[in-house]
Amino acid sequence: MKFEVGFSAIFVMGWIFYRNLTNPAESFESQTISTFLVALGIVVIFFLSVVVHEFSHAAVMSLFGIKVKKIKLMFFGGYTEAMEGYGDHDTWSPFKDFCISFVGPLSNFTIALVIYTAFFDQSLYKIFNVVTGSGTFG
Q1: Residue 21, domain extent
Q2: What's the DSSP call for residue 129?
Q3: Per-residue pLDDT tens for 34-91?
Q4: Where in the cell is it found (predicted)?
Q5: Residue 121 lies in a domain
Q6: Backbone angles phi, psi at 51, to 5 degrees
Q7: In angstroms, rounded to a whole number, what is the distance separating the alpha carbons of residues 111 and 104?
Q8: Structural domain count, the chain
Q9: Which residues contact residue 125 at a Cβ distance below 8 angstroms, ignoring those fewer than 6 apart?
Q10: Cβ burial, residue 37 (10 Å; 0-12/13-18/19+)
Q11: 84 domain-assigned
Q12: Residue 94 located in a structural domain
């Protein structure tokens, strides 16, 4: 299986990085290292979410015995291509097609849930405080 990253994907990641790095209210020189790290984190999470999405499609294709020719990342996403002789989504059974199609968005939902839980769910902090004995039980 080949894995390709197209120029357009690199361009989009660079653009997302630049847009998150620069704030029109501030000059470029006043940006801090934390601004740089946040911008880099956004690009990495975006890139990894697309990679996980496409590899999820490829994993389910493999479970159904469909050989994957390549995964290619493009402008705002990517695609997973089956080897010749294994057909495409028009020739697969509706069940296979559903499973292969559904697992990509499911992986993105899972990533979003993990990120939300890690950064925004306050109950996680309460559990941490109880386990470590730090903080309050509020």
Answers
A1: 2-129
A2: H
A3: 777 777 888 888 889 999 999 999 999 999 989 999 998 887 788 888 888 776 666 7
A4: Membrane
A5: yes
A6: -65, -45
A7: 11
A8: 1
A9: 135
A10: exposed
A11: yes
A12: yes
